[in-house]
């Protein structure tokens, strides 16, 4: 038996009945999902976008009863954005460092009232291991929203490493880590996204966050099904890892990097929550300096390159800074292992904000006479200097991308 469809095509009645049954089943499933009380562990941009996307999903009201967030203190623009978002949504937040004790006390108080405060834990690029005592308190377990296609980039800095390695695509993986170590659970769902030429850490974190938020909504809609079908990722010896980026990894070593490599490192770490800088000063004549808006100076046809950089290129050593009042007063040029980069903004250790290249030169050389193409008595630290100094470094900056050490004689 068949029937004429609206569009003039014949359809089998059995297919129609199957579709109606499937639609009814979906509606029944959606109506029967228990709204979850969620404790969300996250930090910075990826976590903010993932949580925002989840809470604004079309099925959010049927999936989520309430959300509390464990997050670090606001550091940098991405951290401030996360905290402003939580404030706008009136979401209760446990603060960094003391959060685990606060969570334990909160849960214990609620348990004394014979009510479980949270059904499910969600971890999103949190940057810390969650104590087993808390990890086992969730009746529905814990989901890790990891920003990579596992087993690739297993570790603490997957987005940064994907950019550093010039990957064409990356993605997210949702793992069931209820009884496993971080990054070691079964994958319930994976989603892929492309990496465009203009992507930096913040833009890629945003893309991955949207994928993660939508994937979390899909999984929460039928958590039992996704858990039963979850599989361990296929391990491979050639899968790149993503170890947590530390301070020493963020320092630009001009004698080791070409201009292209220096720019790539800057882009990969710009806006990243790592390294999380502490606040002790460098006790030596060296100072920390952060160059911002770094670009390659590779236009060999420009007059500035022909008249200034090309002649200097033959004699300048890596780490040399150059500034010209007439030629390029809005930028400082830095010699790399090969080629030059320029930076429009500079922030010195102890300074609360960036300053322009021309202001930096004027402020640091107030009593120095120099001509219009002077190469200053500044020296940026190279590999041999860093090996001696890096263990002494403790920094005032928060959530900057790449750093250098500078000596002003």
Features:
single chain; 409 residues; alpha+beta; seven-stranded mixed β-sheet; seven-stranded antiparallel β-sheet; 14 helices; 35% helix; disordered N terminus
What does this structure look like?
By secondary structure, the protein is an alpha+beta fold. The chain is built from 14 helices and 16 strands. It has a seven-stranded mixed β-sheet with strand order 5-4-3-6-7-8-9. β13 and β14 (355-356) form a beta hairpin. The longest helix has 21 residues, at 201-221. It is elongated, with a radius of gyration of 26 Å. It starts with a strand and ends with a strand. 37% of the residues are buried. Residues 1-10, 24-32, 275-283, 367-375 and 395-399 have low confidence and may be disordered.
Q: Largest beta sheet, briefly?
A: 7 strands, mixed
Spatial order of the strands forming the largest sheet = 5-4-3-6-7-8-9
Helix content: 25-40%
Cα-to-Cα separation, first versus last residue: 92 Å
Taken as a percent bin, the fraction of beta residues is: 15-25%
Radius of gyration: 26 Å
Q: Could you give the order of the helices and strands?
A: EEHEHHEHEHEHEHEEHHHHEHEEEEHEHE
Structural classification: alpha+beta
Secondary structure tally, helices: 14
pLDDT average, as an integer?
76
Shape: elongated
The low-pLDDT segments are 1-10, 24-32, 275-283, 367-375, 395-399
Work out the number of β strands. Answer: 16
């Amino acid at each position: 038996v068949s029937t004429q469809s609206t569009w003039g095509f014949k359809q089998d009645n059995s297919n129609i009945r199957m579709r109606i049954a499937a639609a009814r089943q979906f509606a029944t499933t959606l109506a029967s999902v228990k709204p979850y009380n969620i404790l969300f562990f996250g930090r910075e941009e990826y976590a903010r976008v993932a949580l925002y996307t989840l809470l604004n999903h079309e099925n959010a009201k049927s999936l989520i009863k309430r959300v509390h967030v464990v997050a670090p203190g606001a550091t940098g623009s991405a951290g401030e954005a996360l905290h402003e978002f939580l404030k706008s949504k009136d979401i209760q937040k446990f603060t960094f460092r003391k959060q685990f004790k606060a969570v334990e006390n909160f849960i214990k108080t609620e348990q004394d009232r014979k009510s479980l405060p949270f059904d499910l834990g969600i971890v999103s690029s949190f940057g810390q291991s969650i104590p087993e005592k808390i990890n086992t308190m969730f009746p529905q377990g814990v989901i890790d929203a990891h920003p990579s296609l596992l087993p690739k980039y297993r570790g603490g800095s997957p987005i940064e490493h994907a950019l550093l390695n010039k990957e064409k695509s990356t993605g997210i993986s949702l793992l069931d880590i209820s009884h496993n170590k971080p990054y070691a659970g079964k994958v319930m769902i994976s989603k892929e996204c492309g990496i465009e030429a203009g992507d930096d850490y913040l833009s890629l974190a945003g893309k991955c966050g949207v994928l993660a938020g939508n994937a979390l909504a899909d999984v929460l809609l039928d958590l039992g099904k996704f858990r039963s079908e979850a599989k361990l990722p296929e391990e491979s010896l050639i899968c790149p890892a993503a170890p947590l980026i530390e301070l020493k990894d963020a320092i630009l070593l001009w004698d080791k990097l070409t201009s292209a490599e220096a720019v790539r490192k800057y882009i990969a770490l710009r806006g990243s929550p790592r390294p999380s800088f502490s606040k002790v000063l460098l006790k030596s004549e060296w100072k920390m300096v952060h160059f911002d808006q770094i670009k390659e100076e590779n236009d060999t046809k420009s007059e500035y390159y022909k008249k200034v950089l090309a002649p200097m290129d033959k004699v300048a050593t890596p780490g040399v800074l150059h500034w010209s009042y007439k030629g390029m007063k809005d930028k400082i040029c830095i010699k790399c292992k090969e080629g030059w980069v320029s930076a429009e903004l500079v922030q010195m250790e102890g300074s609360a904000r960036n300053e322009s290249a021309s202001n930096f030169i004027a402020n640091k050389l107030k009593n120095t006479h120099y001509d219009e193409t002077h190469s200053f008595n500044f020296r940026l630290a190279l590999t041999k200097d860093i090996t001696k100094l890096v263990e002494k470094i403790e920094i005032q900056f928060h959530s900057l991308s790449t750093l250098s050490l500078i000596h002003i004689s």
